[in-house]
Amino acid sequence: MDFISIFLEVGFWAATIRIATSLIFGTLGELVCERAGVLNLGIEGIMTLGAMAGWMWVYMGGDLWSAVFFVAFLGAMAGLLHSGFTVYLGLSQHVTGIAITMFASSISYFAFRMMLPDVTTPPKIDAFTNYAIPLLADIPVIGQILFVQSPLTYLSLLMVAVVMYVMYKTPFGLAMRMVGENPMAAEAQGINVHLVRTISVMMGSSLMAIGGAFLTISAFDAFFFGMINGRGWICIALVIFASWEPKKALLGALLFAGIDAYQVRLQQVHGIDIPYQFFLMAPYILSIIALTLLARKAVYPKALLVPFRRGERH
Questions:
Q1: What are the residues whose beta carbons fall under 8 Å from the beta carbon of 37, sequence distance 6 or more?
Q2: Which member of 55, 79, 106, 211 lies 3.0 to 4.6 Å from 26 by CB, making a disulfide possible if both were Cys?
Q3: Phi-psi bin for 169: left (phi > 0), alpha (psi -120 to 50), beta?
Q4: Cα–Cα distance for residue pair 150/162, rounded to 1 Å
């Protein structure tokens, strides 16, 4: 049966990893923010900003890797803005995050129109191409799935290991988890809660921006309005699905990407007379079902959404 044979295609599994790349960056970024106690609803806008800025950097003559560093810097600045309002001023993380999303998205579209006012078809750039890792790419089946991917895909998988190492094997990672669980105890140990949270939000926002940039400088070769298409919100859902654990975040991103890749191929199967809108909404419906089943059992950081004020005792 055609809809089962899809799972036997090497291209399907390779596409799953490729689609998962932006989700891995975004989910890791959100996870880092939340483990420090800050919900970052600005992710959708930050990913949009990263997508536009990365593409524009290359379009204006910059090279691809410098574009990655540039969008990481912009993401960090967006994170600094977010933490300024939420960490230091103690304002609502929900409202601030939505405001960051609206601001970053709007300024991205505005900058695009200002620099290219008469463009109707998005100009193309020379994006990252797949890089076959010597020897490993020659492994039957696995080599074509895992080791013939974009350099940014390799970077996303590396960042899973990096985030796990930093979070569980370094003093900063311990401080991050502590301020997300019990900031009062962290302060008693001499940890600067505001600084740790700010650095965490900046780091997480950098990863989000790179996730957005992947879409324009690797997956595609152009920027167009609405291309993030809710990926930021999916990343927030995947953090809950992963129970705030990096390795589970990788699994969740791959699962969602697999469903997305499957629905694209399923639309091409002959003999299936189903409106294409059903296939488009399938990954989101399954995400809602998964969250419904798992959210009640999720153990979230205890200080998430709770503002911290020095010297204050509850």
A1: 179, 180, 181, 183, 197, 301, 303, 304, 305, 306, 308
A2: 211
A3: alpha
A4: 19
Contact 30, 43 (CB under 8 A): yes
The structure tokens listed for 277 are 């809108």
Nearest Cα residue to 76 out of 111, 58, 49, 52: 49
Secondary element (H or E) of residue 222: none
193: left (phi over 0), alpha (psi -120 to 50) or beta: alpha
Give residues with Cβ within 8 angstroms of 256, minimum separation 6: 20, 23, 234, 238, 283, 287
Distance of alpha carbon 265 from alpha carbon 262, whole angstroms: 5
Which residue spans within 74-206 are E strands per DSSP? 131-132, 148-149
CA angle 262-22-207, nearest 5°? 160
Tell the residue number behind the tokens 């994170």, with chain if given.
Answer: 79
29 vs 239: CA distance, rounded Å? 10
Nearest-angstrom CA–CA distance, 249 and 166: 16
Q: What are the pLDDT digits (tens) for 227-285?
A: 898 899 999 989 988 889 999 999 999 988 998 888 878 777 655 566 767 767 777 77
Q: Which two tokens stand for residue 105?
A: 């998205």
Positive/negative CA dihedral, 231, 172, 179, 290:
positive
